[in-house]
Amino acid sequence: MQKGAIRVQTENIFPIIKKFLYSDHEIFIRELVSNAVDATQKLKTLAGVGEFKDELGDLAIEVKLDNEKKTITISDHGIGMTAGEVDKYINQVAFSGAEEFLKKYKGQSEGANIIGHFGLGFYSSFMVSNAVEILTKSWKPGAQAVRWECDGSPEFTLEDIEKDSRGTDIVMHINEESEEFLDEARIGAILRKFCRFLPVPIMFNGEQINITNPAWTKKPSDLTDEDYQNFYKELYPFSEPPLFWIHLNVDFPFSLTGILYFPKITKTYEIQKDKINLYSNQVYVTDEVKDIVPEFLMLLHGVIDSPDIPLNVSRSYLQGDPNVRKINAHITKKVADKLDEMFRNDRKSFEEKWESIGLFVKYGMMTDDKFLEKANKFHIMEDVDGGTFYTIEEYKQATLALQTNKEGKQVVIYATAPVQQDTYIQAAKAKGFKVVKLETIVDAAFINTIESKWENVQFTRVDADIADNLIDVEEKKDSVLTGEQEQSLEALFQSQLPQPNIKVNLKGLSADTLPVIVTRSEFMRRMKDMAAVGGSAASWYANMPDEITMTVNANHPIYQEILAQVNKEKQEKLVRNLADLALLSQNLLTGADLTAFVNRSVELMAGEQK
């Protein structure tokens, strides 16, 4: 029997491992099962290059609990270790056997796809154990099996034993604080979280808990739509089917595989981030992928797998690295190319999915200029009547004659609530304007951002002004009223305004235009809309009063009747009712003012009946 001290730089590495290296204790399962997979993959590599000539046999890895002995055992039938290798790879902490093996056999076989890079994974077992045993027998002909044991101090024992089969058993004697890990359900859940897609069968309680060849590891040409949909169900059993997906498969200048799914998103936007899982060689790492996946795609679902993503020693956090930036840029490009392809190949299907797709596209256009450049071709806006969609270039062509203002800018007229804004929409359409819907949660921010990125384009909400003024073309119509009548009418409205923040503006509009139209300042309304969504730097706008303009159409025939009215009180009530009706159309008449309007209307109608 050999006795000795583990050769480490510090006198006692175990408190450091327990406290700082692995903050999440459950990952000891991931580390030890990953090591077992490494050992198995190494054996496959040796067999592939002809060094191992025996039968491979059953290569499944087994996880066993023994509640009486309070042990967890992880067994593999991989390459095993000799006494010398145990001394080298276990006793010399942080000397990574996986890295040495990779250098020797790089590129010779798929089995060389080794998980371990750190050499410290085995020591995570001491987070939960009073003592750990290794019972191992090397694949090498005539090798002597050995048993290594350590109780968490730098002292260890190493002795010869009898062991029938090659491979390694790691036996962990679970400490009192960690007895939660002796629960079958707990271990089962951890295995399904971290080991669900490992490339070697993992057995627990007599059942295989993993899929060794998940969809993302296959060639896209070998997969059907049904295969992709079934894999989505495997990942998210209770979700609606995805709209479509993108299969990532890159081997230069970095290795990246994966499948990203576009989920169906409804107008309620009950959406979750952190639905993309990061794997490294099929080992689950994290669902914190914000550096790898562009921010605007964080609402996607799916899997990304890359051994080239740098992790810290506990594999829990990404570290800044050029590869991460390259992968991020590649994913952006792949998504843009896929959307462009869908738009060109089946525009009708693309339009049907726009309600969900649009959220990603608009967010991407706001935050990523390279994506914006491509998305300009497939970003679409739907007409308020539904069914007709325009790209920005198509909208420009359709509105060139009527919606170009005096500065040469194309004016995009939009509605945020088509039902509520119907009066304004009908007035705009009567002038031949095209009105589009921009009614999602991101549209207020999208409009503000995109105006500065699209040349010669200006967005104007359909109720931002009277239809005649939506396109500033310096047209002026004369009023049919005399100067004296205009002064009287303006004074009447000024005396009947229910709110102090209303500006009265008399204009000579078409006789069939509404008698009074209320509009809100485009700038102020945008700021208030953004503040209401939250996160706006101008959130103080939310508490400011609306800037309201009340445009009085002096050419409407009703004013001839009102001005001819000899009963001053009735004249004032009629004007007040017209003002209130206009405010009501914009949801700006509430509370006592609304009650007074209803009562006054009844009174005026009753008077007409007499």
Automatic annotation (TrEMBL):
Transmembrane segments: none annotated. Belongs to the heat shock protein 90 family. PANTHER family: HEAT SHOCK PROTEIN 90 FAMILY MEMBER. This is Chaperone protein HtpG. It comes from the Bacteria. ATP binds at residues 31, 35, 76, 81, 96-97, 168, 315. The keyword NADP does not apply. InterPro entries: HATPase_C_sf, HSP90_C, Hsp90_fam, Hsp90_N, Ribosomal_Su5_D2-typ_SF. Pfam families: HATPase_c_3, HSP90. One of its GO terms (molecular function) is ATP-dependent protein folding chaperone. The keyword Ligase does not apply. Keywords: ATP-binding, Chaperone, Cytoplasm, Nucleotide-binding, Stress response.
